[in-house]
Amino acid sequence: MPRFTVHVRNEWLTVPCKDATCSIKWLGFEALKRYIKNKPDNGGIQHIKDVHFGVKRCQGFGLLDNDDTIEDVLEDNDFVELGNITNMVYMFSVCREIDYISLDGNSLTSTDLVNLGKGLFKIKLTPEAEQKVVQSRELLDTIVKENKVVYGITTGFGKFAQTVIPVSKLKELQENLLRSHSSGLGSPLSPERTRMLLALRINVLAKGHSGISLETLHSMIQAFNASCLSYVPEKGTVGASGDLAPLSHLALGLMGEGKMWSPKSGWADAKYVLEAHGLKPISLKPKEGLALINGTQMITSLGAEAVERAEAIAQQADIIAALTLEVLKGTTKAFDSESHRFCDRVQDAYTMRCCPQVHGIVNDTIEFVKKIINTEINSATDNPMVFAERGETISGGNFHGEYPAKALDYLAIGVHELASISERRIERLCNPSLSELPAFLVNEGGLNSGFMIAHCTAAALVSENKVLCHPSSIDSLSTSAATEDHVSMGGWAARKALRVVEHVEQVLAIELLAACQGIEFLRPLRTTTPLEKVYDLVRATVKPWIKDRFMAPDIEAVHRLLVDQKVWNIAGPYIEKYCMEYIPESRPSSPTAFALDPPPSPRKRVRLE
């Protein structure tokens, strides 16, 4: 069955086509239907039948006639774009001024890197970084001129380190390195993650310890700023000597080989994509191929996204747990230093009473991992390292990914606990013997099943996480004829950490839906102001559950609220206000306090600072 990728607003939508005799107009409407699905305001479209739009090919920008048949003007897997759409809040091709982040190899943060991945900024080098790059390259050029034998510059790689390469073949040596090492498999990284990977590699090269030429580095920056992104398969790295396979794929596209993607062209031959943006393929100088691929940037860029999303969901998990506590009529006395002094209920289940302790260690874990990731982001990870000020190169082991690999395994184990305890709270919400609410949070039980299987979904995700939390970094397999005889397996650590975080977000989305549904049965009672605002936010996206309906879109919509941090944006200011009023020594920007009304008292291991 032919498939087409359609660009609508900032989203790429895959539209299958069973009948190629359908019109281009049909393809456009099918894309619009997918675009507005699950959007609380229908994406700004009032009546889809009244919408007018134009369709053009991404490659070549040829405008298509809406009455043409698909088989006459498109090929399978073509990319097209919808534009000039009327009756929409957002108009297409809106140009805006994009700010720059200046890279120096020392000050980039995980937050910056994620924002670069989203396309919120372009990049440039600081003058100091440019000077260091030039000085580093001058030393390498001297080494080549003097015919010195230095690993990776005038020799082969790995097991072939003892093989000296003639000067006349040094360019071919670097090109062969990229071609042979581009052996990854699996799905390609998304454009956002490829942007992060490219930006991070540029940042490391900007430190001036790699020997890259300023000309080549500028070419990489131009490709980033134009969103010319190489096809990078997600699998193939063992995390030492660096992320060789994915970084080779990244560099191969810059060399004009393999595939590339850009918003203008879609997927096409790399040479064509570069030409379409007025860019030239890079021409490698001695050591530059090695400089492009020796490093932990695949592990670290994915790890940066994982830790940023983990931090966001951990903040919101406190708010969701507070809402569940209200629905289950739990006591806040467990969070007071004089617990249960005037309370009829002796104690709640651990899933409510011990939230500060369980959530607290997750916050501490995230803080620990984030520190390591931010250090790795600004670390030189090449081999050999070039020290221009000392006039020497040193072969070391900074390319080994053990630091981020271990940290990301730890992150997965830590953040998983948010889903583990959340799933148990969902059980309490759905179980009438524990909640004093209708079974599975729905009227006419039996005719309606309510949240019965939503809870099963949460349980399935938690169980899957238990397997994903097995540390990948405890494994090592010798590679490169026993030259690289200990590796980190950090690529898998990063990818599975991201999967764990996503599962945590989804489980908490189900809990938030269930807690809001529980509130429906407690009206006209009202909860605290911030929690009522969270309820209103959810209800602006998902209607109350009156009778059974298709539930997956509801879960996906609330998951998007959490990913976009909208729950935190609503309730966060109240939490910060409580912290300032009741815990004056607290830091205004620190993670959340658990109870929202009344505010909790400080006690050991509760995240209040």
UniProtKB/TrEMBL annotation:
- Its GO biological process terms? L-histidine metabolic process
Print the keywords alphabetically.
Answer: Histidine metabolism, Lyase, Phosphoprotein
Q: Which residues form the Par3/HAL N-terminal domain?
A: 5-79
Region: Disordered, residue numbers? 588-609
CDD domains linked: PAL-HAL (cd00332)
EC no.?
Answer: 4.3.1.3
Matching entries from InterPro entries are given as: Aromatic_Lyase (IPR001106), Fumarase/histidase_N (IPR024083), L-Aspartase-like (IPR008948), Par3/HAL_N (IPR021922), Phe/His_NH3-lyase_AS (IPR022313)
Pathway in which the depicted protein is active:
Amino-acid degradation; L-histidine degradation into L-glutamate; N-formimidoyl-L-glutamate from L-histidine: step 1/3
GO MF annotations, alphabetized: histidine ammonia-lyase activity
Supply the enzyme class, top level.
lyase
Q: Which PANTHER family match?
A: HISTIDINE AMMONIA-LYASE
In the record, the note on similarity to other proteins reads:
Belongs to the PAL/histidase family.
In Swiss-Prot or TrEMBL terms, this protein is called Histidine ammonia-lyase
Q: Which organism is it from?
A: Sinocyclocheilus grahami
